[in-house]
Design brief:
This protein is 20% helix and 22% strand. By secondary structure, the chain is of the alpha+beta class. The longest helix is centred in the last third of the chain and has 13 residues. It is globular and about 35 Å long.
């Protein structure tokens, strides 16, 4: 089975430069409202399924 070990978000929505290391088994993402939990899931979905395309989720003011 393939697993995701690490996710790095750079200029993605509210994440300037975030790196997340996942453990074997169940991983839970918790945090306050509007802290970027859903954008982690969106980034993973983007990588796995190439949805959405383009720069829709680029951090405001970022050029890459």
């Amino acid at each position: 089975m393939n697993t995701i070990n690490t996710v790095r978000l750079e200029n993605f929505q509210s994440h300037l430069d975030t790196s997340i290391d996942f453990s074997t088994g169940l991983n839970v993402i918790v945090g306050q409202s509007d802290s970027g939990k859903t954008s982690i899931l969106r980034a993973i979905r983007w990588v796995l399924y190439n949805q959405p395309r383009g720069t829709d989720f680029m951090r405001v003011g970022a050029d890459f």
